[in-house]
Amino acid sequence: MSASPRMCQALVLAGASTRAWHILGDALIQVHQPELALLALDRSLALDSRSALAFYDRGRLHAMLGHLAEAKADLDRSLEIAPSQWFALRDRARVRAAGGDRAGAIADAEEALRLEPGDGSTRDLLDQLRK
Q: Which of 29, 49, 70, 115 has the fewest CB atoms in 10 Å of its CB?
């Protein structure tokens, strides 16, 4: 689904719907509106502070913006809620590597690969980190 229909879907569902705000935030990421995406994801999390995927998406957005501390905090929170999210571990490994925590990055990448052995991007990341 492209960003425009997703934004329309989110706006129709908006209000007190955490899912609608999350969909809107994701759609705004896709159309390169990071500030508005952050606002939408903040609203989603204000409505449901247990949404692992909203924390993941906001962490991923912070990482794209170079806000490493915020990215790591959101990815940490996402993993506290849903520890088996291999993709959150992979992205936290990237954030840790960018922040200079090579050992933590390797540990996260290894765990992500254990949970999802077929993910080539995690395997590539781990190979890079071990060089």
A: 49
Question: CATH 1.25.40.10 occupies which residues in the chain?
Answer: 51-131
- For residues 68 and 99, what is the distance between their CA atoms, to the nearest angstrom? 7
Share of the chain above pLDDT 90, in %: 70
Q: How far apart are CA 65 and CA 62, in angstroms?
A: 5
Predicted confidence (pLDDT) per residue in 41-82, tens digit: 998 999 999 999 999 999 999 999 999 999 999 999 999 999
Cβ proximity of 35 and 2 under 8 Å: no
pLDDT in tens, 26-51: 888 988 989 889 988 998 999 999 99
| Assigned CATH class of 51-131 | mainly alpha
DSSP 117: T
Q: Which helix (H) or strand (E) holds 74?
A: helix 68-81
